[in-house]
């Protein structure tokens, strides 16, 4: 490990105070970057819901001969692809940089989405789902770390939380689209699967011309290139703001100077310094998504088992909206009350809600349905944290590797859940299936209570090292 990167003002010529136009330009850049990275999360939620909606409609299964085994494999295909995409391409991104991979992964996604129009057999859908998952997994490990490396400390949860909200928005939009197609044009299921090409094109346009992360450049010793990016996009972020915001901008500039040139070594994720953090981010993310992906992918089936009957598909659509409302709640709270509080409590809340659903016929249908929707709301609150915690607890040299490891582990958990849930419902029934899902949430709650750090307001280098003091709460909730 070398000394901290030297980008201090002593190396630079004196500069005039920035005008409002410069500060506004740089704030607009941060909004554009949020949109460009959030587009990838929107697409991930969109793809997952598209597959769920196409399978729920029935016409696709009839047309291409989707058996029960193929249903389980297809439902898990994007998740399996995401595992390998995050695990392998996160490390590649730490080696080669954020910028080139940021465009390449989405280009592969676009081509694959268009190939959905050519699907005539179940195995083709499974293979294309794997490739889509690879691209999505890569984007998980690229987009949110890039945004974290540009975001001000006091507002980092705000910006990163938007990404997770967009995942839920993508899911809702795709599920609604699939619901309309299934209802009015059931034979148009190819359009349900290929529709993700539209947001992919828009996202590629938004990403065109975005710069490399200055923190990554500094971590590779490329000081001059980093200084150019900082000058263009970061130097005047706090200009024109309150005294607190200007002070925070100065602290973030100091944090950039603290970035160290380090070699990327994947084994560092399992070193004594980061072993517990790696285990924590993998475990809490698995415990969030394993029940959720399984229960929402087969949400109409679960709601029919609860007793909703013919209203199950509409109830599933309502459930996706409730999860989105929870995500908005979590986003509002994340920089105000901190990360731990919106993880530990909701995780135990999910466990309680699912244990109540497991009581089955002992509860009135309206109460069991309310408990299920309560689970979805609690899930939504903590659902923004997989886009925040992993980005904060690893240093720049292994940040995308750590995010890729955690997202990959979570997708294996989600794939296991989506594969096993229909089998469990068929052979064990609703009660034991819900008990299993509740137990997963309970494990997540215990793990989070013991290991979740509070990173709210910490500078990124301090959060990664587990040191430092957070900024005042007011700095995280003002303007911008």
From TrEMBL:
It is a multi-pass membrane protein. Residues 1-23 are annotated as: Disordered. Keywords: Membrane, Transmembrane, Transmembrane helix. Residues 33-456 form the Major facilitator superfamily (MFS) profile domain. GO terms for molecular function: carbohydrate:proton symporter activity. Residues 8-18 have a biased composition (Basic and acidic residues). Its main location: membrane. It is found in: Cell membrane. The chain crosses the membrane at residues 41-61, 73-92, 101-119, 125-147, 159-182, 188-206, 279-298, 310-334, 341-359, 365-389, 401-423, 429-449. GO terms for cellular component: plasma membrane. PANTHER family: PLASTIDIC GLUCOSE TRANSPORTER 4. Belongs to the major facilitator superfamily. Sugar transporter (TC 2.A.1.1) family. This is Inner membrane metabolite transport protein YgcS. It comes from Streptomyces albus (strain ATCC 21838 / DSM 41398 / FERM P-419 / JCM 4703 / NBRC 107858). The lineage of its organism: Bacteria, Bacillati, Actinomycetota, Actinomycetes, Kitasatosporales.
């Amino acid at each position: 490990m070398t000394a901290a990167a030297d980008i201090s003002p002593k190396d630079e010529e004196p500069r005039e105070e920035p005008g409002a136009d410069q500060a506004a330009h740089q704030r607009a850049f941060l909004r554009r970057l949020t949109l460009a990275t959030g587009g990838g999360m929107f697409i991930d939620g969109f793809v997952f819901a598209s597959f769920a909606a196409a399978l729920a409609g029935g016409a696709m299964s009839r047309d291409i001969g989707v058996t029960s085994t193929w249903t389980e494999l297809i439902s898990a295909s994007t998740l399996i692809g995401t595992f390998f995409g995050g695990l392998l391409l996160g490390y590649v991104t730490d080696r080669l940089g954020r910028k080139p991979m940021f465009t390449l992964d989405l280009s592969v996604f676009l081509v694959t989405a268009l190939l959905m129009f050519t699907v005539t057999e179940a195995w083709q859908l499974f293979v294309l789902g794997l490739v889509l998952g690879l691209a999505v997994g890569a984007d998980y490990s690229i987009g949110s770390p890039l945004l974290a490396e540009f975001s001000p400390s006091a507002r980092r949860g705000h910006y990163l939380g938007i990404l997770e909200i967009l995942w839920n928005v993508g899911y809702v939009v795709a599920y609604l689209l699939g619901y309309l197609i299934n209802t009015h044009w059931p034979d148009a299921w190819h359009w349900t699967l290929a529709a993700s090409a539209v947001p992919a094109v828009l996202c590629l346009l938004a990403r065109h011309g975005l710069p490399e992360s200055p923190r990554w450049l500094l971590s590779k010793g490329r000081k001059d290139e980093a200084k150019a990016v900082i000058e263009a996009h970061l130097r005047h972020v706090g200009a024109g703001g309150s005294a607190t915001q200007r002070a925070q901008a100065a602290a973030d500039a100091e944090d950039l100077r603290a970035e160290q040139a380090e070699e990327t070594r994947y084994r560092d994720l399992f070193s004594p310094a980061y072993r517990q953090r790696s285990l924590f981010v993998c475990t809490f993310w698995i415990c969030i998504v394993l029940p959720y992906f399984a229960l929402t992918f087969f949400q109409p089936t679960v709601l029919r088992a609860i007793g909703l009957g013919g209203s199950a598909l509409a109830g599933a659509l309502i459930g996706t909206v409730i999860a989105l409302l929870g995500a908005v709640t979590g986003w509002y709270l994340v920089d105000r009350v901190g990360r731990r509080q919106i993880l530990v409590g909701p995780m135990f809340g999910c466990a309680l809600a699912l244990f109540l659903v497991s009581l089955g016929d002992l509860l009135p249908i309206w109460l069991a349905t309310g408990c299920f929707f309560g689970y979805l709301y609690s899930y939504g609150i903590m659902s923004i944290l997989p886009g925040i915690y992993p980005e904060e607890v690893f240093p720049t040299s292994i940040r995308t590797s750590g995010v890729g490891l955690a997202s990959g582990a979570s997708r294996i958990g989600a794939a296991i859940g989506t594969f096993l849930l229909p089998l469990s419902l068929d052979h064990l029934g609703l009660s034991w299936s819900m008990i299993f899902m509740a137990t997963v949430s309970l494990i997540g709650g215990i793990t989070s209570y013991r290991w979740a750090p509070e990173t709210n307001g910490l500078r990124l280098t301090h959060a990664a090292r587990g040191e430092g003091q957070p900024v005042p709460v007011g700095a995280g909730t003002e303007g911008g």
